[in-house]
Amino acid sequence: MLRRCLSLLALLVVGCSAIPEPTVTPSIDAPSVSADGLLDRAAVAAAIDDELDCSSGEVTIDEFDDTVKIVGDCEKVTISGESVLVVAESIGSLRITGYGSVVIARSLDEVRIEPGGQASLVQYEQGAPQVDNRGEMSVVRKAE
């Protein structure tokens, strides 16, 4: 349910003229969303049980419909899976090639969304990452 809520939120934030604006009724397990559509990283992280350790400095997520929390600071994160939700602390380099990903991070240094990374949402709290966004209907934004 959490993944569906976040995927729907990503589409609403990114927008699509061919899709009528749906009415969303929050569920009990939906994360906190501010009036301007920002996701609460701590609330989303608390709802995720699956963790990936980044002690090697690098994580690759290639599953479909995966929801993970990355533990520890991560130099490189690659997302090639589709409909992926990731919550992380610090990411050096983030690369998204899979469709419909949502990444919520405390800090980011670099973001690259490839053309296959369509309809993806990347939200960060700190830093001023270098952004190369080639993903149609994809958004990289700072939570302020």
Automatic annotation (TrEMBL):
Keywords: Signal
Signal sequence interval, chain numbering: 1-20
InterPro entries (UniProt xref): DUF3060 (IPR021417)
Protein's name in the database: DUF3060 domain-containing protein
The keyword Signal belongs to this UniProt entry's keyword annotation: yes
Source species of the chain: Tessaracoccus flavescens
PROSITE patterns: PROKAR_LIPOPROTEIN
